[in-house]
Amino acid sequence: MLAHLLARASIDSIVIESRTRAEIEATIRAGVLEQGTVDLMTEAGLGERLAREGQVHHGIRFRFNEGFHRIDLSALTGKSITIYAQHEVLKDLVKARLDAGGPIYFSAQTLSFHDLETDTPALRFLQHGKEAEIACDFIVGCDGASGAARHAIPVGALRVFERDYPFGWFGILVAAPPSAPELIYASHERGFALISTRSPEVQRMYFQCDPEESPDSWSEDRIWSELHGRVSGADFRLVEGKIFQKGVIRMRSFVAEPMHYGRLFLAGDAAHIVPPTGAKGLNLAIADAFLLSRALSTFYSAGRRDLLDSYSEMALARVWRAQHFSWWMTSMLHRFEGVSDFDRRRQHAELEMVAASPTMLAENYVGLPF
Ligand code: DHB
């Protein structure tokens, strides 16, 4: 995304990608795009298939105490969300970039970063058995939570904030029509469940599980009985179908501050990770890309460094709002082992409070303005 936005400002970039095109285009991740993400893709000329295939949703539903509570996102905020899988976004970005002739080096491993404190940083990488070096003006680490970029920053120059969660999500893709017209976030004695969608024929569902759970020890019958137990009831029944993908997602909150060191800038998961509840991960990365594209184009067009200097502070303001939101959604909806009956009742009261006063949740769910 950053490479596209830079190209529109006539700034050259090279994308170094550690995996193959096929791998990144097949990795299943979340699927909720905030309004700001959709608008940015559209403005950047990347929204053609998104407009055709994305499903616009105007509300979400919470299920607890055997009832449904709808949050009318559009009535509360004037905005909506779009369901469009992250790997579909990647397919669109990669294709548009390659069509424009923009270089993407796939299967390339970053080896080392050099001279980050100077105006002429460099990066060495390995691709198809050959080493090469790129001399550049800036390096942006968009290489994820376990990427090399953050580790190139000297210990002591970064402050790290983190929190682990004692559960994960079991995620499945199902060949079935939607069980409901909108996403369902369910809080149940047995644990959290989320009923999402991908297309009229494919549904995405998750349920809270042990983070060490092995997907292979779950038969289709066992998965359905767990999901029905948490979501189905007298008023509603999940639609079953063939499960054709399953996996366990770990959950973590993480922030590294500041999001730059000299001429190395961090964006997306390289600097921050949120637990998936609320689907903020991709949207935060896109917001970072937007801020960096603006800061870099101002640097090149006007010789101004102020937006580069304030990038970290501006990005982190949004990151911490999303950290709080994702932690809050996670704490409100999941079952925590060993908590008292008091805490269970308190969790339900919190959900009742949100159902009665949903504006704050709705504003954060559709995304803060870019
Ligand atoms: C999806 C993932 C999320 O984390 C979420 O909060 C909502 C939907 C999804 O994959 O569809």
Describe the structure.
The protein is of the alpha+beta class and 370 residues long. It folds into 2 domains: 2-59 and 72-162 and 252-333, FAD/NAD(P)-binding domain (3-Layer(bba) Sandwich), CATH 3.50.50; 164-251 and 338-357, D-Amino Acid Oxidase, Chain A, domain 2. It has 12 helices and 19 strands. It has helices at residues 2-8, 21-26, 35-43, 48-53, 73-77, 86-99, 220-231, 281-302, 306-309, 311-333, 341-356, 359-366, and strands at 15-16, 32-33, 55-57, 59-64, 67-72, 81-83, 104-105, 108-114, 122-127, 130-135, 139-141, 159-175, 183-186, 193-197, 202-209, 242-257, 260-261, 264-266, 272-273. An 8-stranded mixed sheet has the order 5-4-13-14-15-12-16-19. The protein has a 3-stranded antiparallel sheet with strand order 2-6-3. Helix 1 packs parallel to helix 8 (281-302) and helix 8 (281-302) packs antiparallel against helix 10. The radius of gyration is 21 Å and the shape is globular. It starts with a helix and ends with a helix. Residues 30-32, 183, 194, 196, 204, 276-279 line the site of 3,4-dihydroxybenzoic acid (DHB).
Largest sheet: 8 strands, mixed
Record the strand order, biggest sheet. Answer: 5-4-13-14-15-12-16-19
- Please name the fourth-level CATH homologous superfamily of the largest domain: FAD/NAD(P)-binding domain
Give the distinct bound molecules: 3,4-dihydroxybenzoic acid
Number of domains: 2
Radius of gyration: 21 Å
